[in-house]
Write a structure and sequence with these properties.
By secondary structure, the protein is an alpha+beta fold. It has 3 domains: 173 residues, no CATH class; 104 residues, no CATH class; 171 residues. The chain is 38% helix and 13% strand. Strands 7, 8, 9, 10, 11, 12, 13 and 14 form an 8-stranded mixed beta sheet that branches. The chain has a two-stranded antiparallel sheet with strand order 1-2. Helix 9 packs across helix 11, helix 10 crosses helix 11 and helix 14 runs antiparallel to helix 15.
């Protein structure tokens, strides 16, 4: 019988090799890592079947005598959960696939039609007797059985499918962004972004910069040792970067306490505090580096219909106040017991974009003095006009015109009642966009009070990204 030759890929990581004792088989563990090599069974009856099927004369069995997995059917082999682990044989398995039967299951034929002496004579008559002994200098060509689908590969794919299924179930149970990605209503409730796609568009803008930040959820490395002696480093991070960002947005938009967030995200309360602080500084740096003040031409290009009677309006001014859980000894900084209050100034274009954010000052500072110290005066020009939603008298310190729609509403209610009411509602809608960040309406906890200025600034700047121009029908949560 002429035998076909083939080459295995050489393995350089094996210090010792196992060889198959079957005639006409040159399999070696040194050249093929996909095969497994099995010792002869201890049960006498099964061992004799092995010897009879192998057809090797004067076989001297030792503890090192092996038969490779090519001579067993897939049903005889037990595939381990780990594809790299050693395969085992089922109890009573007998080798039946050989070169001389085309690697087909011919055990029944061999036992019924052939006697051991007869088959030996046939093999002798086909060629050199030395082919009966194992030749380590050549290897046969692969057959169709070798090219068939690898059962280990099928098992590996099944394991991967189950792993993905477990991950999906884990995501559906964990409190993370992936859990709410399919619901725009949930995304809007927890982050104030109108849709998940809107949120992901913003994430793509900041993700490149986030790769350079030092995240709170530190990477933990564990060494995994394989059976072949190699080691892998497995990384475990308690929260993904996008989930850290999601945690910050939930705290800012919903105003949940640190303990509540710790229970939801399954992390320690102190870790929640550090995540909020880290992302407040990061977003403050990234968003604050962009110029938000708009030119007069750009503001006029987006002027809403409500401002037709005030076409030169450049910015609407609003003062807001924050309360922090920071009891201090300076009584002048207190507006409420055990709460320190801060005051900030926000400038918005008529179409809803935030164009100016001041730093926070002590609440004891008057609105007029806050306006002067904020720095917005240097941005105003004579051809512009500013508008207030409250009684702020700074006419003597600005180089431009001043509108007060609240006063106009009282004085001209008979003539322009509908028009002035519409303008007032529009202004209140603009201010409401910032107030939708519930954290600004709650008492900011002591653990994040050190970054209150960054949190306040980020909350104001995020308005430009969360929902674009005024969204009609925005439900109040």
């Amino acid at each position: 019988m002429t035998s076909k030759r083939y080459k295995y890929q050489r393995r350089i990581d094996s210090s010792s090799a196992e060889h198959c004792c079957v005639p006409l088989c040159g399999a070696s563990s040194r050249f093929n890592s996909s095969l497994s090599f099995h010792t002869f069974p201890v049960v006498t009856e099964i061992r004799e079947k092995w010897i009879r099927n192998i057809r090797r004369e004067k076989l001297n069995l030792t503890c090192h005598t092996r038969v490779c997995s090519r001579h067993f059917t897939s049903d005889d082999l037990i595939q381990p959960f780990n594809p790299k682990a050693r395969r085992l044989l089922r109890k009573g398995a007998v080798p039946t696939l050989f070169e001389w039967n085309g690697y087909s299951d011919a055990e029944a034929k061999m036992t019924a039609e052939f006697e051991y002496s007869v088959t030996i004579k046939e093999i002798y008559s086909q060629g050199d007797i030395h082919h009966l002994e194992h030749d380590y200098c050549w290897v046969p060509e692969p057959t169709l059985a070798d090219n068939a689908l690898d059962p280990a590969k099928d098992l590996h794919e099944e394991v991967e499918r189950l792993r993905r299924q477990v991950e999906e179930m884990s995501v559906s149970q964990r409190f993370c962004l992936g859990r709410f990605a399919a619901s725009d209503d949930d995304i809007r409730f927890y982050t104030r972004f109108t849709t998940c796609s809107h949120l992901m568009a913003f994430w793509k803008l900041i993700e490149p910069a986030s790769n350079n930040m030092i995240r709170v959820s530190r990477v933990r490395a564990s060494t995994v040792k394989r059976e072949d002696g190699t080691t892998d480093v497995a990384l475990d991070r308690s929260l993904q970067p996008i989930d850290e960002f999601f945690l910050f947005m939930v705290h800012l938009s919903v105003g949940l306490t640190l303990r509540d967030l710790g229970h939801r995200f399954n992390i320690h309360e102190s870790t929640v505090s550090r995540i909020i602080t880290t992302w407040a500084h990061f977003l403050y740096t990234v968003l604050g580096s962009l110029r938000i003040w708009m030119s007069a031409e750009a503001v006029k290009a987006h002027l809403p219909n409500q401002f037709q009677d005030y076409p030169d309006t450049q910015v609407l001014i609003h003062c807001t106040e924050l309360h922090c859980q920071t009891p201090l000894l300076k009584s002048e900084d207190f507006s409420y017991k055990s709460h320190r209050s801060f005051k900030g100034l926000i400038g918005m274009a008529p179409h809803g974009a935030v164009t100016f954010v001041s730093s926070l000052y002590a609440a004891s500072l008057s609105d007029e003095e806050l306006f002067k110290q904020s720095g917005i005066v240097s941005l105003l020009k004579p051809e512009m006009a500013i508008m207030f939603d409250n009684t702020l008298f700074v006419d003597d310190c600005v180089p431009c015109k001043v509108y007060r729609p609240a006063h106009l509403l009282e004085e001209q209610i008979s003539a322009d009642e509908g028009k002035e009411t519409q303008l007032r509602v529009h202004i209140e809608g603009l201010i409401h966009r910032i107030k939708q960040h519930k954290l600004l309406d709650t008492v900011i906890p002591l653990s994040v009070t050190g970054t209150v200025n960054q949190i306040y600034t980020v909350a104001c700047l995020l308005v430009n990204y969360q929902n674009g121009p005024l969204v009609e029908g925005w439900a109040e949560d």
